[in-house]
Specification:
With 461 residues, the chain is of the alpha+beta class. The protein is 56% helix and 16% strand. It folds into 3 domains: 149 residues, Beta-Lactamase; 81 residues, Orthogonal Bundle (Helix Hairpins); 145 residues, 2-Layer Sandwich (Heat Shock Protein 90). The protein has 10 helices and 12 strands. Helix 4 packs parallel to helix 5 and helix 7 runs parallel beside helix 8. The radius of gyration is 48 Å and the shape is rod-shaped. The two termini are 48 Å apart.
Length: 461
Amino acid sequence: MSRRITLTFLALTTALLVLAVVPLGVLMTARERVSFRDDQRSATRVIAAASEEYLSDHRSAAAMHKELAAAAEAGDCAAVYDDAARLVASTPCTAARGGEADELVERVLAGHEPEPPENEGRLLTAEPAGDVRRPAGAVVLARSAGPLDARVAAIWGWSAGIGALALAACVLLSVRLARWVGRPLSTLDAAAQRLGEGELGERAVVDGGPPEVRRLAATFNTMAGRTEALVHGHRAVIADVSHQLRTPLAALRLRLDVLAARAEGDTAAELAAAQVEIARLSRLVDGLLAVARAEQTTPRRTPVRVDEVVAERVSAWAPVAEERRVRLSADAGPALTAALGAGHLEQVLDNLVANALDAVDDGGGVTVGVRTVGRSAEVRVRDDGPGMGAKAKEVAFHRFGNPEAGGTGLGLAIVHRLVTVNGGAVRLEDTAGGGLTVVLELPLWTGTPARPRSLPDLKET
């Protein structure tokens, strides 16, 4: 942001300087050239007036030679010609004589306005001696353009200096302005990032900057405080519910176990059905608590070797798959490191593998593969079970989204939450030949190592 503000002010100031200083320099340069030319023509006319007395009135040439001497002392070269274009008198230097001077004399004697040329750093002017229409002669004066060039260079030098000072002042002011605005925003951004990473006690300390930024920081702190209170309140509710529900369910299940051990006949059958319902209710409570914990998860991402975790979880579930006579395997993939919360990938894979094993019949297969797709690590859990219909896929990641699920119907909801909270995505596809494929897109690790944070066990099948 600071760089953008500085560059914007610099570009604006540069544009203003170009639009103001350059035209001013051009105008001043033109005025200097006109003034220089007028001074030269004025000096030429003075010599022409003195020469007229000698050429037309046949008076003494003393005044003419005096003016020529004065011109030579000033560094100019001058030459006087009669009406036949013959050289009458001149200064010691010869710059006012030659081909260019002869052309000017001819034009002046013909009564035309000459176009003074500029060659080799000198300027030539010609003026008639006497009447313009019938001049008695002509005077040519050559003057060095060095003083004019020096003044023009000084004009542009001062213009460049003023522009450079203006640009330097603009840079200093824009940097100070950018820091004044950018520093509190950077502080606020860092506080928001830490809050998003799970540090609920984080607050933004903004003492300077624009009033709008200070008000934004105050609003952020208010929001952070309310968020902290809400999260702590939810955690307290979850802890209370966990204790208040699990304890009586465990006691009820124990009593049913005792009664079932002594019952016979129809009573034993009814108690067995009650035990099944109690077990299902316990799993449902555990699932709801797991989803609630997952929804409150704000992970601090750490580098996780995806291929190693996949191999580890496949190995851990291998005995279960063998017991159910299901082929469980992992496709050899590249060594990939993803940016995930500690333990999240293990919990996701446990839910997906458990669901796949439940869906596959004896002799079926479940495969877990890893590959790179763009900037993501893609994990695919494929099974050759009965698959899932289009309507079921649309609501599969909702709580109890699949009414035909064999378990609680909460496993995919936990998977979706854990994947998306880490900046990834999850989708369902049909397996070629029948079955379901769950595709996980996990962000690759690109940052510096972060401090891992332990998470509660969210596994639910």
